[in-house]
Write a structure and sequence with these properties.
- Helix 8 packs antiparallel against helix 9, helix 11 packs antiparallel against helix 12 and helix 16 packs antiparallel against helix 17.
- By secondary structure, the protein is α+β, with helices and mostly antiparallel strands.
- It has a 5-stranded mixed sheet, covered by helices on one side. Strands 1-3 form a two-stranded antiparallel ribbon.
- Among the domains are: about 70 residues; about 160 residues, Histidine kinase-like ATPase, C-terminal domain (Heat Shock Protein 90), CATH 3.30.565.10.
């Protein structure tokens, strides 16, 4: 009896498989015979088979054999998405790029946009911000150039905006990210696309979470989960479970977090998405660390780190290393803790740095400008049509020519005005710089200090410091007339400045300049008086409120061939305490010199292959008590090609 039942079951399953295969063959035959070119028509026939790699490859091969590029491009994009979902990103990118080539051959705008967005998503999953942004902005540019966009084009506009928002998330620009997600969400609501709504609510939740608004974050994550439940998306469930679990951890609801993260890991393993497998292991290790289950936490964090490294998931590597660093600190294995902390910082710098942020902003601005230019071009084309109809009327023609001449004159005038404004800005910057160095309080106080030496009959001190003061004023006046000077002259000027300022501190400050042996300060150019605002900050914010043992060390060294690094380290009270003291003062000391210096460094860097960099480090002792501040200014030294020419 059991054998008969088993035979019936086998026959039933076999019959079902045969029916499925027969249906697939009929659909393929229908697609091949009609050869539709619209994305939506191809998708309506082949959509049920998008999770079956064998059937997708069958479509690709058959479309290729009969020279049907639209279907082949569609199939390659579907195959690339499957590769992406199992974290085979290079294979995914290769498939999508082939799809883009075929879309170009067939001149199919919908498939071009779909391919470009898919390439961008794969790069974004690899934390490669620049190529991801390039492909998404190309997709957005093409989509917006379409006069009457189809549903596919409209959907891909939403995808591009959502992806650009995700890149802003990586770069921690949360307000900018929210604007992109809201634009994308508006399109998805109009289209009634539940998957798009799920994705955007998830991303909005992440932006709120990053800003510490956990209530708003949870509300959006749960909205996303509702839509994922409606479309029965296991991948969506994994993402939402992990996100909700992270918020619970931050709210100290560790048991609730552990339950939902375990559900996320189970489903991630089931769908075999390595990106979310790594994330789930790391989140589980995190919550176990908070619960005190350190052994299990270590195992899961190591497993998450292993998967992340295997698939080059840089963001996950950073998270795993950070949590392992905290875990080993708890177990007092300080060397391992330090190693993982350093590893996380190193990789994090490659993901999120100032250059990437500037790159993103430049590309977005460029895209907006291009969109406006296209609008202007469209208007100009309309004007040409009107002009061709009125060519017979000579009077109107000459009026048009006159108007055109006036417009050209206005444009030339505006261009010249803009040039003059830029020149004025540079002059104003240099004047502001001189004013900031020739601070009247500094001059008055310095002269007062020298006057005290005279009153006290300390003639030698008075003459000594008066000579230094006059030499400093002369150097400042000379330097202010030059855009750049040698680093050697700059250091001499700073030594004089510190000698004068030290009078006001009763010579309590130990100021030292250290120059590495491999540095030739005479051959390095820097903007004049660029270091003074940093020394002034160290003096008046770091040391003025400290009672004794006041030190400032200025060190010149190289970490990279194309930069000279200058560090200014004080052992003052630290930035937080200085800010608190400044808030309590009735007369607050305005520090505009740093802003002017940054603007001057930016202008100076235009003649070099690299941009300047400024970093500020808060220094702490073993008890996490502030012990000073370190400012590192990295000035480029390799001139650009145009500069050398």
């Amino acid at each position: 009896m059991v054998a008969i039942l088993m035979l019936c079951l086998f026959n039933s399953n076999d019959s079902f498989s045969q029916n499925q295969q027969s249906k697939f063959e009929q659909d393929i035959a229908s697609l091949i015979s009609s050869k539709p070119k619209q994305y939506t028509r191809i998708d309506s026939i082949f959509k049920p088979y998008l999770r079956d790699s064998v059937k997708i490859k069958t479509l690709i091969n058959k479309a290729s054999s009969i020279n049907y590029p639209e279907a082949e491009s569609y199939g390659l994009n579907a195959l690339g998405a499957l590769y992406r979902n199992i974290s085979h990103y290079q294979q995914s990118i290769e498939a999508h790029k082939k799809a883009k080539t075929l879309a170009d051959i067939s001149d199919n705008t919908e498939l071009k946009v779909v391919s470009l967005n898919n390439i961008g998503v794969a790069y974004r999953r690899m934390d490669l911000v620049k190529p991801a942004l390039d492909f998404h902005t190309k997709a957005l540019d093409i989509s917006r150039s379409v006069d009457h966009p189809s549903a596919t084009i409209s959907y891909n506009i939403a995808v591009s905006q959502n992806s650009i928002g995700n890149i802003y998330l990586i770069l921690e620009q949360y307000d900018l990210a929210l604007k992109q997600f809201e634009k994308s969400l508006e399109i998805e609501k109009k289209a009634g696309n539940r998957l798009g709504l799920a994705i955007n609510y998830q991303n909005i939740g992440y932006a709120y979470e990053a800003q510490g608004e956990f209530g708003n974050a949870l509300r959006n994550y749960k909205l996303s989960l509702e839509y994922n439940e409606q479309i029965n998306s296991n991948l969506g469930r994994v993402i939402c479970y992990n996100s909700i679990g992270q918020v619970y951890i931050k709210q100290h609801k560790y048991l609730d977090a552990k339950v939902i993260i375990e559900k996320a890991l189970d489903k991630a393993l089931h769908i075999n998405d390595q990106f979310y497998i790594a994330a789930s292991y790391i989140n589980l290790g995190w919550v176990q660390k908070e619960l005190g289950d350190l052994s299990a936490s270590e195992d899961n964090l190591k497993e998450g780190l292993k998967v992340a490294k295997q698939y080059n998931l840089n963001s996950s590597i950073v998270e795993a290393d950070k949590h392992l660093s905290e875990l080993y600190y708890k177990t007092k294995d300080y060397q391992l803790s330090l190693d993982h902390y350093k590893a996380s910082v190193t990789i994090e710098k490659t993901i999120n740095n100032d250059r990437n942020l500037r790159y993103v902003n430049d590309v977005i601005i460029q895209y907006e400008n291009e969109a406006k230019n296209k609008e202007i071009k469209a208007l100009a084309d309309e004007n040409l049509i009107v002009k061709s109809k009125l060519e017979r009327n000579q009077k109107i023609f000459w009026y048009s020519m006159l108007a055109l001449a006036i417009i050209v004159g206005i444009l030339v005038s505006l261009y010249r005005h803009r040039q003059l404004q830029q020149e004025k800005q540079i002059l104003t910057l240099e004047q502001d710089m001189l004013r900031s160095q020739m601070n009247p309080h500094f001059i008055f106080n310095s002269l007062n200090s020298i006057k005290l030496y005279i009153i006290n009959n300390e003639k030698e001190n008075a003459v000594y410091y008066l000579n230094k003061f006059s030499k400093l004023i002369r150097k400042i006046l000379v330097a202010s007339s030059e855009k750049e000077i040698s680093l050697e002259d700059e250091l001499d000027t700073m030594q004089l400045y510190m000698n004068i300022e030290n009078i006001r501190f009763s010579n309590e400050i130990d100021f030292e300049i250290k120059i590495d042996d491999n540095i030739s300060t005479a051959n390095i150019k820097v903007p004049s008086l660029v270091l003074q605002p940093f020394l002034e900050n160290a003096l008046w914010h770091g040391l003025s409120s400290k009672k004794d043992d006041k030190r400032i060390t200025l060190r010149v060294y190289r970490k990279q061939d194309d930069f000279v690094s200058i560090s200014i380290t004080d052992n003052g009270i630290g930035r937080q305490e200085a800010e608190k003291i400044n808030r309590d003062k009735l007369l607050k000391r305005k520090s505009v010199g740093i802003a002017i210096t940054k603007a001057r460094l930016a202008n100076f860097s235009k003649g070099y292959t690299n941009d300047y960099r400024i970093a500020i480090e808060d220094l702490y002792d073993d008890n996490r008590k502030a012990k000073g501040t370190k400012v590192i200014v990295e000035i480029p030294t390799r001139p650009s090609v145009l500069q050398t020419a």
